[in-house]
Amino acid sequence: MKQPFKSKAYIYKYNSAMPINTKYLASLEANRYFHIIAKANGNNRLFYSDENKRFFLKKYLSYSTGYFDTYSYTLMDNHVHWLIKCNSYENLESHIAAMPKEIRKKHQSKFLLQEITFEEAQEFQWKDFFISYAMAFNKENNRSGSLFMNPFRRVEVTDDAHFTQLIIYHHANVLKHLGQKDFQKYQWSSYKSILSDKPTHLKRDIVLDWFGGREQFIKIHQENAAYYYNHPIALE
Predict the structure, then answer these.
(1) What is the CATH number of the domain that holds 87?
(2) Is residue 94 part of a domain?
(3) CA torsion, points 195, 197, 203, 208, in degrees to nearest 10?
(4) CA–CA separation, 18 vs 219, rounded Å?
(5) pLDDT digit string (tens) for 171-210?
(6) What would the pLDDT profile of 43-61 be if each residue is shown by its tens digit?
(7) What is the rounded distance in angstroms from the CA atom of residue 88 to the CA atom of residue 91?
(8) Do the domain assignments include residue 6?
(9) What CA–CA distance (Å, rounded) separates 71 from 168?
(10) Which residue in 16, 19, 161, 167 has the most C-beta neighbors within 10 A?
(11) Is the residue at 1 inside a domain?
(12) Angle, alpha carbons 1-155-223 (nearest 5°)
């Protein structure tokens, strides 16, 4: 399996008074792979319960369908990681065109009219997802204001090693942030879903094939998890 990876030099651009390395604001281009990181503002939490996490994943599936595929993820209390691949331009166009006009959002209609770019269409969808979850979360917890740090981070996956490392790092993230010794038992990452036989929206077969099958998937995770969660800078 070959990934259409490409490298980009990164530069700096300004958002208000703060310089932001555009390595973390990669253009969400068609047929490209990205590490997406969503973080809570300040000391806020994104989840207070398992029900919050189930609701979040249900929302994510709804908003991701037709826009991008998911290869791995992990949910922590105050941040979330995904490894995704943006859909093709043609498939996104077909997906939106198939939607009844009365339920299309403004940015979706603009995309069909070529008034916004593929990148903008993707970014609007992510923002709509975050806003939708935040509104429900705020209502449940009697809070107001923004929940997610803006802008959300997106880092292009540039080579095969990066792709492999991210999947392992996502699954091992619980070792770093929650202090659990056995990441394989954590309920809120894609690890158990990838090894399960239950239906999933994840690109399970592609991931298992990438690692050389189920046994190699487990073995490589066991051998490398501690290293990758101790070396986050190279991955984030």
Answers:
(1) 3.30.70.1290
(2) yes
(3) 40
(4) 42
(5) 998 877 555 567 888 999 999 999 999 999 999 999 999 9
(6) 999 999 999 999 999 999 9
(7) 5
(8) no
(9) 11
(10) 167
(11) no
(12) 55
